[in-house]
Amino acid sequence: MDGHLLPVANLMPTAQHHDDPQVEGTDTKGTSTGPGWRYALSTFRDNGELNGCLVLHARTAPSPAQMIELRAIAAPSAPGAVEEAAGPHQRAHSAAVSDAPEVAELDDRVRILSATVLQLETRTSIQNALNGALTAPLGQMGSRESLLAEVLSVLTGRSVCTEDGFGNIRAAVGTKSGRPYPRPSPSDRSRTAQLWLAFGLPVQEPRGLVALVLPATDVLGAMCLVEDGRPYTADDVFALEYGTRLLQVELSHRRSIAQLELKLGRDLVFELVSGLDEETAVLRAEALGYDIRGPQHVIVAQWQPPRTDDTVAVALRRTLRELQIPALVSRHSDTTLAVVTGEPLDTELFTIAARTLRSATGAVGIGGPSRDVTQIPRSYAEALRALQIRVHSTDPYGITRYDQLGIYRILDMPGNETDLSGYVEEWLGALQGNDARRGSDLVHTLAQFLDHGGNYDDTAVSLAIHRSTLRYRLKSIRQITGFELGDPETRLNLHVATRAWRLRAARTN
Question: Which end of the chain, C or N, has fewer beta carbons within 10 A?
Fold first, then answer.
């Protein structure tokens, strides 16, 4: 009453002495004429004002640990000293908890332990949730990293993006657009990598908190908690770091599989185009998850300037996957080759590959269909011929199928080299001799003129010369050969001869 404790007899299970002292702001004892243990725990309001007393009674005295729990229940924020008022038998084993500074220290330890347990439970739940993303069904998610980003976004309540090794966004969750921030420059990514390696902690960037997938010297990817103005908590950082470790497992596994597939597929493609028995080919292809049975086509590709790394092979593999065409892809020097199932697409294949490589300065040749494994070398030879014809044509960039070569298929028939040489000599011998003596290029001029259907303007543009210069060259061609270029039969033979001349030049190179 009025901030003071008043002894009341009917609150005690046994008789009370009315001369018990009144205690303000501390625990008080309850005395008894009989055996047992009684204790009065003071309770307080939030403002520290004495609120009342919780009277406890037991047959035997509780242990110090139990006393700590009882005090936590009765008055977890009670200020002031705690004074024990039990009998002499209690003082011996409860002195450690009745002294106020030691009790406060124990309370602090309990609070620290409770906070630690709560933190461990929180982080265990974070780990379990993210671990589940590695094995859970993808559902509508396009990839495992998209699912990881989704779970991390739910755990942190923030937008999450994953990036590839070049800073391109691969998955975005919780953002209004697929690209909530611009791609970091190579210098920015290098600086982030240096800070990551130096401190081993996520790096604060303008776009957000970034953790890198950097198992060795190459950055495989990154995970970013997108900046939204709120401070990052310790649990946010822990979730980001743990999610990035799982992303590293996923990306490292993906790279290892890709490298293994590239190596094994490369070896198998070489053996297939060189000639491999069907039984062995079927077994080895099945080991790579590829069905070699049924119609197959061979594709060869070259890009300018020549590339001796795997960039074209990777681009062709991605293109075929996007088109959902099963394939084995390999590389030999600056030429990429693939064995593909079914009927490959034409223009779309080149368009997607050029977009992936960010360059349209490439040529692709496709061989005819092979009905079984033993015909794959023939399809490979046809693909090479189609590629060479495309490279040496008036339009050297694009895709050419062997079955669309037309007259070139006749000119390029095996075994007719002698007849073809005689034919070229008959129609172009005089021009070739003049070019050799004077260092001129009249054969090429004639070939371009005939390829453009006799159009002066188009021919001049293709040769990068003036129209009057073209007229002068054509006049010289008529004088040297004695042929009338306006005669249809003569133009046909000259056109066939120039095509054959190109084929010979391609074989020589």
Answer: N
Distance CA 1, CA 488 (A): 126
Backbone angles phi, psi at 303, to 5 degrees: -125, 145
| φ, ψ (nearest 5 deg) of residue 284 | -70, -35
- Which residue type sits at 310? D
Q: Which residues pair with 150 in a beta bridge?
A: none
**What tens digit of pLDDT does each residue of 283-307 get?**
788 777 788 888 899 999 999 988 8
**Whether 130 contacts 199, CB under 8 Å:** no
DSSP secondary structure code for residue 425 in this structure: H
Q: d(Cα 246, Cα 252) in Å, to the nearest integer? A: 10
pLDDT tens-place string over residues 62-109 = 765 676 667 666 644 434 333 333 344 444 444 444 456 777 778 778
Q: Are 29 and 38 in contact (CB under 8 A)?
A: yes
> Tokens in use for 401?
């199928």
Nearest to 305 by CA among 350, 362, 356, 355: 362
Contact 126, 88 (CB under 8 A): no
Report if pTM > 0.70.
no
